[in-house]
Amino acid sequence: MGSADLHIHSTASDGKLSPGQVVKLAAEKRLEVISLTDHDTIAGLAEAINTGRKHDVRVLPGVEVTSIFRERETHLLGYCFEVDDSGLVSLLTEHRQARVKRIEWIIGELNNKGLDLDVDEVKAEARGGNVGRPHVAAVLIRKGYVGSAREAFYRYLGDRVLGPIESSYVSCREAMQVVKSAGGAVVLAHPGVLYTKNELDELTEMGIDGIEVIHPSHNYELQKKYEDYASDHNLLVTGGSDYHGIDKNYTGRFGEVTISKSWVHKLTRMTDRRKQISVNSK
Ligand code: AMP
Ligand code: ZN
Ligand code: FE
Ligand code: FE
Question: What is the pTM for the complete model shown?
Fold first, then answer.
């Protein structure tokens, strides 16, 4: 059992708890290091860091960037970047807008199927945070179209139902470059059964720094597979609960899906070096 969790969401995207509430809960669960990794935003970071100072929880800068790899959406985790890096800030600003456009497209598809919902009520559900499909799911539940988020994804929102999703997210390659030039590390999020060996090799070649080995969607076999792959390719290993504060089945158990601090040290050592190099080259 470790005491770090590097994959957590808050109300800055599709999580249920505010950044401050997440950090307080982390303190109760005796977590020592966490990273808030909201979808395409770092808006919750300052509040998380401040609360962390009061409750003795170290909060590392993090973000889960949506990007396009082989015409599919791929989640990349970025860690320990400079939070005011202009390249990163503008990518996240673009993605906030890309999310709205994508949700508009999804709602259009659902309207075509005869469902009555509109963009404003879904945006309201996000309460100023980055909008995503879970907010659509919440509206579908409230209106009685489905009984749960799981059902909403199964019937209306899953990648398989929607088919090729229209969006203007940046490519995987570009997202990696942006996070790295902000001094951060890029980690492939929850690879699970999402990639073939070939695709994994391509992503490695493209320049991921690490792989998320520990995740609620990974059984022991998958953990082992990715830990071995990381060690063979000299990649960092990370992990976390992907806590959203919703739907226990999907989000895993906060405080239980954890990693050891030695993994975190390897990550921060690497990003410290990367930032040092970029300072020296300026
Ligand atoms: P989006 O950011 O719009 O692409 O939505 C992705 C998010 O939807 C994930 O981060 C999860 O929070 C949630 N999600 C994805 N699949 C499911 C599912 N089958 N059931 C419930 N929530 C899901
Ligand atoms: Zn999410
Ligand atoms: Fe994800
Ligand atoms: Fe996530």
Answer: 0.96
